[in-house]
Amino acid sequence: MSSDVQSPRQLFYDGEIKSATSGKSFQTLNPSNANTLADIHIASNADVDAAIASADRAFPSWSQTPPAARARILQKAVALLRERNDEIARVESLDSGKAYTETSTVDVLSGADVLEYYANFIGGGGLNGETTQLREDAWVYSNKAALGVCAGIGAWNYPIQIALWKSAPCLAAGNTMIYKPSEYTPLHAQTLAEIYREAGLPAGVFNVVYGAGDVGSYLTSHPTIAKVSFTGQVSTGLKVAGSAAGRMKYVTMELGGKSPLIILPDAELDNAVNGAMMANFYSTGQVCTNGTRVFVPRGWKEAFEKRLLEQVEHVRPGPLFDEATNFGPLSSAIHQEKVTEYIRHGIETDKAKLLYGGLGKPSLPKDLENGYWVRPTVFTDCRDNMKIVKDEIFGPVMSILYYDTVEEAVRRANNTELGLAAGVFTKDINQAHRIIGQLQAGITWINTWGESPAEMAVGGWKKSGLGVENGRKGIEAWLQNKSTLVDMSGTVPTVFAKL
């Protein structure tokens, strides 16, 4: 549809839309039908330099702006985001392939919640340091200072939400930011920059550059960049973190997961099945915290599979703006190929039992047949050494693993290099807390899955990341501490006295 075509996206720095000097561009596509949405202009190294210089010029003034004044600007941006939720969500659906029923209720609003949280946090004295009386005539006090110019590298699964998760604490702390969205979902970035500008954010405080990994690499390795915040796959994150650490840059890494969802024998069946469905098929499975390893008591096999097969019929792929649609395509052709290959491997090589779904596309209207669709897929009787059980697929592929004892389930759940999320379903809350305490993951849930409010600090263990985002702890990653000892005794003791 012609109404879906978007205006070209250029660069944004110094508070203005800027032309890229590379002379190069790429097209972003609507994943539901593979139609072109917009031309995206690629930043050259010189463009990145110019954006960083803009942020560097803006940093002294912005970092010295009183927190309450920064808070008022960010709160105005929150109001604009909420006011324009529907129009932003519409573009987010076109760009990401998510159903509008999801983007209009989750993506923009959950990002705005985080911006509001940090605006209120700094406005209420959250950046105040500590004071300690060391002895009668000596005190220690601390201050928090911004880091400088920071780089935010976004991901394609929650584009505007992740942009806000990164920029909210960054800007609230007094830093400036160069943000590079994923090349697969870039349309939100200019919109957010313009909302920040309209809210009163000074020129140079939030800037946008576009491009693929080469642009990201140049940006994150730039000597002026003080911190890198990256969301993406583990292999890329390891490279980015290694490069940043070698240059003594601060880093926050939110990487992948292969998260276990453990259902205990006393759990309520419908809750357990609904939890497993949300942990595998929401956002078409393109969620880093997805609980794709579902551990089920062996005695539950018949009942669990029967109820799951009834529920999975309510997964409804279709037109993105149809109110009944709750399942979209994958984000890109290359990702569709990757997920399809995992499903094929599960069938042909792992020889897992295919309970539902499999190869091919779901039944769709003719105008969506060229989109990047896959079928929601469930494998059962899986083993821990299967590739589909070990690797992060990042698609709607559930693996059911049966266990005999709870101790066995916990041991197998922890048998992975990743540790992003984990969860337990049970009526016994005491046992739930004991098991959560044993699970090696940074984000855990009891009798629910996936909710990540602004107040909740989230981050991975093992190879799933470094540091946390959101909550009170989240802003600490954007600050550096200065401690000062004041001696008021009037004398300076010395060991270099005359004997």
UniProtKB/TrEMBL annotation:
> Organism's domain of life?
Eukaryota
Record Pfam families: Aldedh
Stretches that traverse the bilayer: none
**Could you say which residues form the signal peptide?**
none
Enzyme Commission numbers on file = 1.2.1.3
The answer on whether this UniProt entry bears the keyword Ribonucleoprotein reads no
Q: What is this protein called?
A: aldehyde dehydrogenase (NAD(+))
Organism expressing this protein natively: Aspergillus ruber (strain CBS 135680)
The upper taxonomy is:
Eukaryota, Fungi, Dikarya, Ascomycota, Pezizomycotina
